[in-house]
Amino acid sequence: MAKKTLRDIDLKGKRVLLRSELNVPIKEGEVGDDTRIRAELPTIQYILDQGAALIIMTHLGRPKGQPVAEMSVKPVAEYLAAKLDRPVTYIPYGSEEEISTAAAAVAAGQVALLENIRFWPQEEKNDPAFSRFLASLGDVYINDAFGTAHRAHCSTEGVGHFLPAIAGFLMEKEIAFLQEAVDAPKRPLAVVMGGSKVSDKIALIENLAGKADYLLFGGAMANTLLAAKGCDMGASKVESDKLDIAREMMKRVGGFDEDGSLDQGGQSQNRCRIYYPEDLVVADGFRADAATKIVACDQVPAGWMALDIGPATVKAWSAVFAQAATIIWNGPLGVYEMPAFAEGSNGVAQAIAASSAMTIVGGGDAVAAVMQAGCGEQMSHLSTGGGASLELLEGKKLPGIEILQDK
User: Of 143, 239, 271, 254, nearest to 263 (Cα)?
Assistant: First the structure.
């Protein structure tokens, strides 16, 4: 990797300011899913083992620049202490003088967690004065919060203007898998794209269509593309006001024939073959106990809605995965939270897991679908960043990565 990492610097006796991604669900003062905490432990443990004093910054939820009791990181500090088997000092919201005093009391081998960094209104404004203050708490800055690397905030980018900025192990792993998978992938490269809105991913689609060998569309996004091609999607979720945009975009990337008809498995001028669902699981209502049936993609009955990809689609896509050397999956393929509409995502997860390809799953819903299918351990990499992974795949420069020192 071109960026400096923890292994490239001497931390002994240093005061380390670490930006972590400990944005975990808290209910009644208790940590729920601890995936992000566990993912951060190797970086934290390494810093402490090197004999450094550690001050951690993280955000939790969206407090909008003011203290919100339900979004305090105090429960995270307590949970982290149990995982590390050592005390974790909680530094509450307060004045800069109070925070400086508390941070200065952290000795080598000790760790403290600063209150939710988004309680301070300066954070999301990337205020230089607040960045300078945060930088005064440490000798070196480590960014391990890939999930917020697309945000130019004080704790994710601003501090790096005042301290040496280095990548943590989690950041290193994310960059290595995602950036290298797009810039220099082992081929063939297959990209599975789901989610609800085509309009949110136009830049991503156009970028990947020029790099991938296979591009496969599912989820509500596919509904809009099918509707743009002329299919009657019944009561399915469709971005009706974006059909012209979707149609023009797909013509540019070669996903529609010249007459605007669906080019199923067709090859674009970029050599990328584009796939849509061949069949769909449709329901007579958006509920777990709705009546369901499997129909061809252009035969959705009036009043029914597509809520999952069908078995023929899973079979066809599985043949693509068997040929691929790299697979990237971003976005859900159906309403996987309901058992009746989880089979498509389960089948795709199992087929990807069974392939010999390097497999990368990005975005919270896709990762959740993979975990639900019991295939998480079989994937090469589960990305912790939703928006950040999307922007990296789009080819955008992420502020939280750009600020890191080059080797």
Answer: 254
Phi, psi of 199 (to 5 degrees): -60, -25
Q: Is 255 a catalytic residue?
A: no
Co-location of 210 and 302 in the same domain: yes
Supply the pTM of this predicted model. Answer: 0.82
Q: Which two tokens stand for residue 249?
A: 């975009």
Set 210, 230, 285, 364: catalytic member = 364
Domain count, the chain: 2
Lowest mean pLDDT among 80-89, 135-144, 149-158, 392-401: 392-401
Is the peptide bond prior to 188 cis by the omega test (within 30 degrees of 0)? yes
Please identify which of the residues 36, 118, 211, 247 carries the catalytic annotation: 36
The single residue of 83, 387, 395, 396 carrying the catalytic annotation is 387
Closest listed residue to residue 192, CA positions, set 399, 379, 403: 379
Residue 27 is among the residues annotated as catalytic for this protein: no
Select which of 197, 251, 252, 396 is catalytic. 197
Per-residue pLDDT at 270 exceeds 70: no
288 pLDDT above the threshold of 50: yes
- Which domain does 126 fall in, by range? 6-169
End residue of a domain, out of 153, 169, 185: 169
Contact 16, 182 (CB under 8 A): no
Percent of the chain with pLDDT over 90: 70
Q: Does 364 participate in catalysis according to the annotation? A: yes
Answer yes or no: 19 catalytic: no
Reference 109, options 47, 59, 200; nearest CA is 47
> What distance, in Å, lies between the first and last C-alpha atoms of the chain?
8
Looking at the fold, whether 86 and 164 belong to one and the same domain comes out as: yes
Banded model confidence at residue 264, pLDDT cuts 50, 70, 90: low
Cα–Cα dist 246/250, whole Å: 6
